[in-house]
Each structure stands twice: as structure tokens, then as C-alpha cells.
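Researcher: Go.
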Amino acid sequence: MRKPKHFYVYLMTNRPRSHVLYTGITGNLPRRVFEHKTALGPGFTSRYNLTRLVYHEMFVYPAEAIAREKEIKGWRRSKKIALIESMNPHWRDLAADWQDVHKPVNRVPADPRRILHGLKAAQDDAIEEKPAGGPTPD
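Model: Structure:
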């Protein structure tokens, strides 16, 4: 059975009580936070160095997450701060311990000849020998 998908609304900033707050939505929070922290690509988050996850909510339905993101984006700054401080009063980075959680893995071995080294051949992979006295190819 497939794992149910979740959707997240989150707020990022660059330091506690910063004047810059970013509200976003994603289906993969660890991956998205990794993208923010490593500034993969130009844009608002890389320009303002938004590397601190200070708030997040999880949803089962994407429409609910989208509605919540729009709601939060429409709030005044003071209401966003109250929301953050209701969950995270000291504005700690909630993803501080997620280092390398979604860091891409280099799946290419240093020596491609070593890929199958040490693996035993499966029965289907073994080369079958032709019995003696059988038909020969022309």
C-alpha cells in the first residue's frame, strides 16, 4: 500500500524576529527546506538567505494547504509573529537537526566495474551450456 501524501504550509526566516518572513507550501518539507538552506536557484529565499524554518502545519488535502497558505499570506505581520510564537516562542530553527536529510546522494560508484563485484549470479543469469551431440548452428 502506498504511503499517504501530506502537504505542508511553512514559514521561513533568516534570524529570530527578522523583518523577512516567507510563507510557502510543499508536498515534501525536508526537501523544500534543504532547497531553501542551500539556496538552490535564484529568487526571494536565496536573496534574503531564508534558512530558518520557524513554523509548519501538515495537511492531508492539497486544497486545505493552499487555502491556509493564502490565509496566512493575507495576514498582517503581527498575526504571523503570533502564529510562529504559538508553536516556537524562541524562533528556533525547527529543521536544525535535519542536516543532509534530503541531500542528493551520488549514486555513481567511483569505479563502475565494482558495481557487481561480490554479487553471486542468480540461476537465471548463469550461462547454460549446450548438451553434446545436439544440433549445431549452420
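Model: Residues 54 and 92 are 6 Å apart (CA to CA).
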